[in-house]
Amino acid sequence: MSPKVAEKVAFHVLRAMAAFIVLVLIIVLWDLFSKGFPALTWEFITENPRKGMTEGGIFPAIVGTFYLVLATILFALPIGVMTAVYLVEYARESWATRIIRLAVVNLAGVPSVVFGLFGLGFFVLFLDFGVSILSGSLTLALMILPVIITTSEEALRAVPNGYREASLALGATKLQTILFIVLPNAMPGILTGSILGVARAAGETAPILLTAAAFFLPRLPDSVFDQVMALPYHLYVIATQVPNADPKIPYGTAAVLMILVLGLNLAAVLLRSYFRRMRRV
Length: 281
Known about the structure:
By secondary structure, the protein is mostly helical. The chain has a single domain (40-278), classed as MetI-like (MetI-like fold, Orthogonal Bundle), CATH 1.10.3720. The protein contains eleven helices and two strands; from the N terminus they run H-H-E-E-H-H-H-H-H-H-H-H-H. Strands 1-2 form a two-stranded antiparallel sheet. The radius of gyration is 22 Å and the shape is globular. The termini are far apart. Belongs to the binding-protein-dependent transport system permease family. CysTW subfamily. It comes from Heliomicrobium undosum. Keywords: Cell membrane, Membrane, Transmembrane, Transmembrane helix, Transport. It is found in: Cell membrane.
């Protein structure tokens, strides 16, 4: 086979693989939304579950997911970004930094149910936070920290060193250079990675199953030490523990969860585009 023919074959094979991924996504979304959209009424979004969750809506689960996602961002974003700033801007290459990076990489490969088990043992039992929003959000924050640290590191390294050298040459301190030169230029990559990490946390069931989620609650949580209903766990419960539920309810719950995750992904894309435009001005 000549090199030109081999190149054409490779091109078409790679394009077919990429098209296959898109096709799978379209089939999944079509199946989910075609069965879930009939359930998406105003009552379904704003009412509490009734009659053993065979009727009613999913409002407490939507609010609970929002609480968990918000608290996870508050815990994970500052710690992840500051760790990345330390590794890129301050730490010298040594055995210690290599161990930190190896730990981050390995932490990213830990199954989510293991994070849930750790959260149960450490946050729920040892620190006595109980099964609560606080325990669940801390567990989710630990789970997405590797994603935030890794993407933030890459974003910081992508900032040209000339920017740092010019800032220091004009008399700025290292901290001022990081705050006003490096971080604004790295912000698109940092936010994109962070939001994608949060989107993953919003859809996880195993960590909150052991640390935060409740089967059913008659009211909304009042503090971070209360249990909470959440969309992923609610979907799991309806699909496995409520056999007489209308099929529209689990599909409607899944559709709301997918809209939430896709909305976070869209927000990441829009924020990245916005900061890129701001940087060009």
